[in-house]
Amino acid sequence: MLSRRDFLKAAGIMASASIASWKLGSHLSAGSTQPNFIIILCDSLSARHMSSYGYVRSTTPYLDAFSAYSTVFHNHYSAGNYTTTATASMLTGMLPWKHRAYNLGGLVRSDYVNVNPYTLLGPGYSRLAFPQNPFPDRLLSQYLQDIDRFLPPSTFSLQEDHSPLQLFDHDRAIASVALEDFLMPVQDNTVGGTALFGYMNKHRVLTEPDYQKVTYRHGVPVILETWNLISYLNEQVYHGLYSELSQLAQGKLPYFAYFHLYSPHYPYRPRNDYQSLFQDDGYLPVVKPVHPLSPRIDEGYLMSQGTLYDRLISQIDEEFGRLIARLDKEGLLENTYLIFTSDHGELFERGYLGHGEVYMYEPVLHIPLIIHAPGQLTRQDVFGPTSNIDLLPTLLSIAGRDIPADVDGRLLPGLGGVVDEDRPLFSLYAAENPSFGRIRKGVMAMKKRGYKLITYPGYDALGAVDELYDLENDPHELRNLAVADSARLAAMKDELRTHLDEPANT
Amino acid sequence: MIGKLRAGVLYMFTGRWPSGQGILRTYGVIVFLLYSWTLLASFYKLPSWMYFLDLYDILSIYAYSFSANLLESLVLMAGALLLEYTIFLPFRDREGFQSRSVIMVIVVLACIMTRLILYRSPEKSMAFLQWEWVWWSLSLVGGYVMALRAPRSRFLKSLIDGLAERTVVFVYIYIPLSLLALLMVLIRNISWVVS
Question: Mind giving me the DSSP string for A300-330?
Answer without folding.
Answer: HHHHHHHHHHHHHHHHHHHHHHHHHHHHHHT
